[in-house]
Design a protein that fits this description.
Strand content of chain B: 25-35%
CATH architecture of chain B: 2-Layer Sandwich
Largest sheet of chain B: 5 strands, antiparallel
Number of domains of chain B: 1
CATH superfamily of chain B: Dynein light chain 2a, cytoplasmic
Shape of chain B: globular
Oligomer: heterodimer
Radius of gyration of chain B: 13 Å
Number of strands of chain B: 5
Distance between the termini of chain B: 14 Å
Strand content of chain A: 15-25%
Helix content of chain B: 40-55%
Largest sheet of chain A: 6 strands, antiparallel
Number of strands of chain A: 6
Structural class of chain B: alpha+beta
CATH topology of chain B: Beta-Lactamase
Strand order of the largest sheet of chain A: 1-3-2-6-5-4
Chain lengths: ~160, ~120
């Protein structure tokens, strides 16, 4: 298993702590536009690119579904598979919307992941305020995604 | 109304019981609890349930590794109270009690509820 790679310094410590506390097997933090901020457990940029594209699409459709059913977007999504489970949550820091997608197994539980995700969001908020980073550029999905994958895995040959 | 409603109502009425809850043994999510506003805010109750279910699962593995079989009753004694957990298959029954509460009575009632369920 590879070590976490993080593109933004203010995300680094909270992300590592969250992975450890919630026993996440693999996970990714991205801007809702698709730019990858941090990843852990993925073999290469292709896997991360697929997850980011799917996460952005799922987020967009579940937001709309939530609005139609409940008048407000759904905040979290949990899929319980046979061996592994998927958790997806969104949060806002510094005026930008972020998504987290993580996979866990029987070593953890959705209750634990949900709980530590709340702590993770609070830590990010504090870390962002303390480090006062520059505003992240929000451009096109493909351009953002490629730039962030290059930063995390190195440019393609 | 679930099969646990009456059990939780009964446990919640015992002296020194702050809150009684049932949660999923695997997911740690609250199924039902005694009194909506008892035992702190909803967030801390969710955290308690998730961690208690996780701890109970781990203690089950420790018990099995030690050759002791299935755990029957788990009690965590802390500075300002105690946490009691009993497993009922897919569900864990947990009670958050004050330090001064009658643990024997709580234990007996939780084990009786386990047998009944």
């Amino acid at each position: 298993m590879t070590a976490p790679s993080v593109g933004e310094k203010w995300v680094d410590a909270p992300f590592r702590r969250f992975l450890d506390d919630a026993r996440i097997k693999c996970g990714v933090v991205l801007l809702s536009t698709g730019r990858v901020i941090a990843q852990y457990g993925f073999a290469g940029p292709d896997d991360v690119m697929s997850v980011c594209a799917l996460a952005s699409a799922i987020n967009a459709s579940s937001r709309e579904l939530g609005k139609q059913l409940d008048g407000k977007p759904f905040g979290e999504l949990h899929h319980a598979g046979g061996e592994r489970q998927l958790y997806m949550g969104s949060f806002r820091v510094g005026g930008s919307e972020y998504l987290f997608v993580g996979v866990f197994d029987a070593e953890s539980s959705v209750g634990l992941v949900e709980m530590y995700f709340g702590d993770f969001c609070r830590s990010l908020e504090e870390s962002w305020k303390a480090s006062a980073p520059e505003a992240l550029p929000q451009g096109d999905f493909e351009g953002d995604l490629n730039r962030s994958l290059d930063a995390l895995f190195g440019p393609l040959e | 109304m679930t099969p646990f409603t009456e059990t939780l109502r009964h446990l919640g009425r015992l002296p020194g019981v702050i809150v009684a809850m049932t949660a999923g043994a695997k997911d740690g999510l609250i199924i039902e609890q005694s009194g909506s506003s008892a035992g702190g805010d909803a967030s801390s109750q969710r955290h308690t349930a998730a961690l208690a279910a996780f701890l109970y699962a781990k203690s089950g593995r420790a018990s099995a590794a030690a050759g002791l079989g299935e755990p029957v009753f788990m009690r965590l004694e802390a500075d300002r109270g105690q946490l009691c957990v009993v497993g009922c298959g897919e569900v864990v029954l947990l009670a958050l009690i004050e330090s001064s509460a009658n643990v024997g009575r709580v234990r007996l009632d939780m084990l009786t509820a386990r047998s009944a369920l």
